[in-house]
Write a structure and sequence with these properties.
Elements (H helix, E strand, L loop, with lengths): L8 E4 L5 H12 L3 E6 L3 H11 L3 E5 L5 H15 L4 E4 L20 H29 L2 E8 L10 H21 L4 E8 L13 H10 L8 H12 L10 E4 L7
Helix pairs in contact: 1-7, 3-4, 4-5
């Protein structure tokens, strides 16, 4: 079974700003019903929902909390219908500033678990809460957001990259288990994006270095990464699962 994007109900986590907002806009552009999840950014989320029209609503939930995620799914179902699609974009508070990053000698385990709780625990909560509805419909699309730093740690953000590596593992094992239910699970891994709140602290020289190192000679935008997410939700990806698509202008191959 497949559904066109225009017939899907999509939850996008961390959707009030940056890449998440670009993903929400992309799905709305294609006619989907969009649940804009946020943790703290209420004003931005509600403004985005209003700009996207009557098929988009803002929903507050901390995706690290399993009970909150269950309530989120129930709220979305009441307002928009049973979710067919989940995009797990939420990011723990983080700044891509290599000079300010914690080095190995000073890195605290609590900084690792902060990233793991949002990336991996959040994904687990979302999958567990949405699987019953997706399985009953024999259709579901889960897209996680990763990073090309896993393949090419040009700046060693240890906590962030380790969490995204674990999320890639969960993406693939979930794909193996959920496939018989008609649910695909894939990852889109961007590089440095120009520009989100998280990349606002990145020195301009690094943007220039990355642009000069890519075959396309430019830095990827949030809108370009968002369009790749749409592919995994679309009927064209109906036979694709467990994959990690790197969207960074060709900086990382493979």
């Amino acid at each position: 079974m497949t559904l066109p994007i225009s017939e899907q109900t999509v939850i996008v986590t961390g959707a009030a700003r940056g890449l998440g907002a670009a993903i929400a806009r992309a799905f709305a552009r294609e006619g989907a019903k969009v649940a804009i999840n946020y943790r703290n950014s209420r004003e931005q989320a509600e403004a985005l929902a209003e700009s996207l029209g009557a098929r988009a609503y803002a929903f507050q939930a901390d995706i690290r909390d399993a009970a909150a995620v269950s309530e989120l799914v129930a709220d979305v179902t009441r307002r928009l219908g049973s979710p067919t699609t989940v995009v797990h974009n939420a990011l723990a508070d983080f700044s891509f500033n290599g000079d300010a990053r914690p080095k190995l000698g000073e890195l605290r385990w609590e900084e690792m678990t902060t990233q793991l709780d949002t990336a991996v625990k959040g994904a687990l909560n979302l999958i567990q809460a949405t699987r019953p509805g997706m399985a009953a419909a024999s259709f579901g699309r889960v897209v996680t957001i990763g990073t090309n730093l896993f393949q090419n740690p040009v700046v060693p953000y240890h906590d962030y990259t380790a969490a995204k590596g674990a999320l890639l593992s969960l993406t693939r094992t979930a794909a193996a288990e959920l496939g018989p239910d008609g649910i695909t699970v894939n990852m889109v891994s961007g590089g440095l994006l120009r520009t989100t709140d998280a990349s606002a602290g990145t020195p301009e020289a690094l943007f220039d270095l990355i642009a000069g190192s890519t075959p396309l000679r430019r830095v990827t935008t949030p809108e370009e990464a968002a369009d790749a997410v749409l592919f995994f939700a679309s009927p064209w990806a109906r036979a694709v699962t467990g994959q990690n698509l790197i969207v960074d202008g060709g900086l990382v191959f493979g």
